[in-house]
From TrEMBL:
Occurrences of domain UspA (ranges): 7-154
Gene name per UniProt: LOC18603511
Native source species: Theobroma cacao
Alphabetical list of SUPFAM superfamilies matching this protein: Adenine nucleotide alpha hydrolases-like
PANTHER family, per database record: ADENINE NUCLEOTIDE ALPHA HYDROLASES-LIKE SUPERFAMILY PROTEIN
Record protein name field: Universal stress protein A-like protein
InterPro entries assigned: Rossmann-like_a/b/a_fold, Universal_stress_UspA, UspA
Amino acid sequence: MVQERPTMLVAVDDSAHSEYALEWTLDHFFTSFGSNRPFQLVVIHARPLPSSVIGLTGPASAEVVPIMKVGIKKTATMVKEKVKEICRNKSLSDVRVEVVEGDPRNVVCEAVEKYHAAILVLGSHGYGTVRRAILSSVSDYCAHHAHCSAMIVKKPKQEN
């Protein structure tokens, strides 16, 4: 009887921090294990709703929302293709990449449940306490609400 490997869920957006977290995860948990990888890999990207991006309501939103939808969809496609490229470059082909529309905090926590993830990996934008509180950090939220262990990968600061 073959035992199924636990799932590692990596949440990505279109930032360099997210890309770094994915590459770091692949280097530390996948590429060095060859075919004996300890996890199945699922990568998720939350495509925000246009209304959450622009924060508009009323007559003006009717004109802006279709434009925002196109941009958001284009970004999601770009993120998905970038993830596939990174995985291909690391010789990983058995990766599930999914784009789900909604608030990233909810999308990620729901994906943890859907895939019964053993561990969740997120990148950190490196915001301070005040900025994190104002911007409602996805990694902060998921670290506290996801029903699995969470690992937040920080991109090293560049030296000047």
